[in-house]
Amino acid sequence: MQHDHTSKQFDNEMEAIRGAVLTMGGMVERQIRRAIDAFGNDDPDPLAPILDDERIINNMQIEIDRQCGNIIVRRQPAAIDLRIVMTVIQIVNDLERVGDEAKKIALRARPLAGIEERPAPVRGNEIGRLSEMARAMLQAALDAYARLDVTAAAEVIARDEQVDIEFGAITRRLMDGMTEDARTIAATLDALFIAKSIERIGDHATNIAEYVIHIVKGKDMRHAPLEAIRRETRA
User: Fold this and answer.
1) 0.85 exceeded by the pTM?
2) C-alpha distances in angstroms, 78 versus 61, 89, 215?
3) Fewer CB within 10 A of the terminal residue: the chain, N end or C end?
């Protein structure tokens, strides 16, 4: 049985780690915004700030993982405490991968920024709207983690379906445009890769929301139907 002072130390350490995770999440959100802004950015090297952030984010992941490892060795947490520590490691892994997707977006956005005839979903800002949907999902998932709010986490998971629908619609428009005008193939492929990266960001946000439910409820809700998730979070 843990002594009170040991339990308090664990709580303080986990609170510090939670703050670090949320700081890392904020930086990843900024990466997403910067990556999408690269569409119309006149900066000759829009990748520079994104790559700078990536280095910081990677170091934060390593440091948070180290702190979690130290807690496991020193505190030997069990039950929900161990679940919290292990889930943090999963969350920071998903955040790091979101950062990777943001870098991919910026790489593909740079050539699109320099051409006049952009694919329709780029020109009409449909991809921009999709990115905002995914970024908002990530923000909501992190907020659900900060408050351990399973109801909010379930709503994040529900929003992933709309991101998938929008991604499908954008993909169809891009493919139709490429069929009509072969000169747009290169630009269309860039836009397709960008849209796919954004869709994956939504998937990572969904993962984080599922981890929140796992922390609180002790149940693995990956691949569970949405209605089952809602029933579990209402219980």
Assistant:
1) yes
2) 23, 16, 13
3) N
d(CA 154, CA 40): 35
Which element (helix H / strand E) includes 225? none
Rg (CA), the chain: 20
For residues 42 and 68, the answer to whether their CB atoms sit within 8 Å is no
Contact 159, 203 (CB under 8 A): no
Q: Tell me the pLDDT of the chain (235 aa) as tens digits.
A: 444 546 888 889 999 999 999 999 999 999 998 888 876 565 556 678 888 899 999 999 999 999 999 999 998 888 889 999 999 999 999 999 999 999 999 888 877 766 767 777 777 788 989 999 999 999 999 999 999 999 999 999 999 999 999 999 999 999 988 888 877 888 889 999 999 999 999 999 999 999 999 999 998 888 888 899 999 898 7
Tokens of 168: 């499908």
Report helix, strand or coil for 220: coil
Question: Which is nearest to 216 in space by CA: 120, 156, 151, 140?
Answer: 151
Instruction: Name residue 145's amino acid.
Output: Y
